[in-house]
Write a structure and sequence with these properties.
CATH class: Alpha Beta
Helix content: 25-40%
CATH architecture: 3-Layer(aba) Sandwich
Distance between the termini: 34 Å
Structural class: alpha+beta
Largest sheet: 8 strands, mixed
Number of domains: 1
Strand order of the largest sheet: 1-2-3-4-5-6-8-7
CATH superfamily: Gcn5-related N-acetyltransferase (GNAT)
Length: about 230
């Protein structure tokens, strides 16, 4: 079972190393929950907490992913799938979020499970999604004008990854989002006694735009083809 209708065709994206397939609740949610709660993967990510499939559906799947501006992919590592079966090759998730069809803008979000970090997985997953979003329709892409990468301002690893993938740093949006779990900046309760205030974060904002894509694309393809 997949989420609601995305603005665009959520087709399978793949190369010889990985596949991005539409996230299927029946196939992928239990592994995602296990990884998130075993490895504290939401430290820097503004997801609502979920410890069970029911909480995932209630707090994230139904209220967020059923919107037409949202879609979620499961990352499948082909090498692992060939060796031990696809059930063990689910390596993380990639998302297109806050998509505006009118403005031709989207944001990508990435979550890689620890066993697949510092491998070819993240680079190829992000590269495939960039090709899909920024390549023109004549080349099989969506031809969007802007793709964003946003992360917690204190998430140094994510900021390095954005720059490595060719994104341009635009600045820090202060108090940009709440951060239900994990690291957060000082809460209002410490400042003025407000009770029950959601913790917040400052967000580092990066982007790649259509008018620089032709220059950046070969560099990203070269990264994807590197041996790890």
């Amino acid at each position: 079972m997949s989420a609601g209708e995305f603005y665009y065709d959520q087709k399978v994206l793949e190369n010889h190393l990985i596949s991005l397939v539409p996230f299927n609740q029946d196939l992928h949610v239990s592994k995602l929950i296990h990884e998130v709660n075993t490895h504290d993967l939401l430290k820097y990510i503004p997801f609502p907490p979920f410890e069970s499939e029911e909480e995932f559906i209630k707090n994230f799947w139904e209220p967020v992913l059923n919107a037409p501006g949202e879609c979620l992919y499961a990352i499948i590592d082909k090498a692992t799938a060939k060796e031990s079966g696809e059930s063990n090759a689910f390596a993380g998730t990639m998302a297109l979020t806050s998509t505006s069809k009118e403005n031709a803008v989207t944001e990508i979000g990435i979550l890689i499970f620890p066993a697949f970090q510092r491998t070819h997985v993240a680079t190829n997953a992000a590269g495939l999604l960039l090709q899909y979003t920024l390549d023109p329709p004549s080349a099989g892409g969506l031809g969007l004008r802007r793709v964003e990468w946003k992360c917690h301002s204190e998430n140094a690893a994510s900021r390095r990854a954005a720059l490595r993938m060719g994104f341009e740093f635009e600045g820090i949006a202060r108090w940009h989002r709440i951060c239900p779990v994990g690291v957060s900046v000082e809460a209002l309760e410490k400042r003025n006694g407000t009770k029950g205030e959601q913790r917040g974060r400052h967000t580092a904002i990066f982007s790649i735009t259509w008018d620089e894509w032709d220059e950046k694309r070969p560099k990203i393809v070269a990264l994807m083809e590197r041996k790890y």
